[in-house]
Amino acid sequence: MAQDSVDLSCDYQFWMQKLSVWDQASTLETQQDTCLHLTQFQEFLRKMYETLKDMNSNTIFERFPTIDQLLAKACWNPFILAYDESQKILIWCLCCLINKEPQNSRQSKLNSWIQGILSHILSALRFDKEVALFTQGLGYAPVDYYPGLLKNMVLSLASELRENHLHGFNTQRRMTPERLASLSRVCVPLITLPDVDPLVEALLVCHGHEPQEILQPEFFEAVNEAILLKKISLPMSAVVCLWLRHLPSLEKAMLHLFEKLISSERNCLRRIECFIKDSSLPQAACHPAIFRVVDEMFRCALLESDGAPEIIATIQVFTQCFVEALGKENKQLRFALKTYFPYTSPSLAVVLLQDPQDVPREHWLQTLKHISELLREAVEDQTHGSRGDPLESWFLFVHFGGWAEMVAEQLLRSAAEPPAALLWLLAFYYSPHDGRQQRAQTMMVCRGTLQAW
Known about the structure:
Number of strands: 0
Helix content: over 70%
Order of helices and strands: HHHHHHHHHHHHHHHHHHHHHHHHH
Structural class: mainly alpha
């Protein structure tokens, strides 16, 4: 072990001198010397990373005071960046230098400097004269060289992350939590680069096996912001992972939807539907955990607005989009309806979940009476010693506005005595907090109005 340490120190001094020479001179001889040593230098970087990964930032600088200079010189050498996996290993080494919780301005400045170097490695679009000569000699133009280089590096890291996800508890093959955290931090300034999408997706989908979240909050926030502003496009599976792993991002997505609806001058139902579908929230809500958060935010908006018709309309359009997405995702529900609507009768949810237009016209009255029966039982039945919460049943009924419209249509079309079940539904829809006597009075007023009409 001691011998390995001595060897690494000797190698360190040798490569520091080499990099200084390569950095100071730009001649054909130095270029040839660089290319001649690329394999050995990459092997040195591997050994360096194996040493650095087990140290914290302070210990690293105590042992290698000029490590930042060595890595910086390597990162600005186009031949080193272009060779095999050197670029990826340099990123690993730089990530080891980052202070996870900077304690002073020096450590904060170091973190900013490292992020700048990392950003240069992955996103710099300029090509020095040496790179142009090098790529032309291989038959490539510089404009073809950069995308291929970045793409290969990103795909390599994404592949490693997928393997990490598949290996599960195989600790020998698993990527360390520290490295996952570092990768997420590195990606923050690079989120909107199209070539980095596979790496962002792989990080979101790759779940660690730690009790706490290991990816950086800044990473989640940057990805969410880019999604909301349409600067990147990720598969729905990655978006779902983002909103499941970082609740503030989901809440911000909902607030972003509310802001768009409020700021729009004209909000017809078609426009509301476009905003909602564009948000990806109905598709993501096919996962019950996301649905429950979204639904709770709708509930709060409804209560705060005292049942504003605009909010009710938005909830109903969202529910239509959600049911549509649920039908597209699976022929059979992956999750029981109880997981989406835990506070109401599953049999009631099953009936309401149907599209009213799918019910034959001759069965409309029968179906509405059945819905009225189920709701009334949930709200007023005292056979078990306590009534259900009227607000919960009403909130469920509000989701499915098509049934309320059907109630009104059937009452207007009824030539004989208006069905009591439909009158009860209408009274409950508009006054869910009323007791039995108040609702009975409302039904009488409705009956008289209909008969006079």
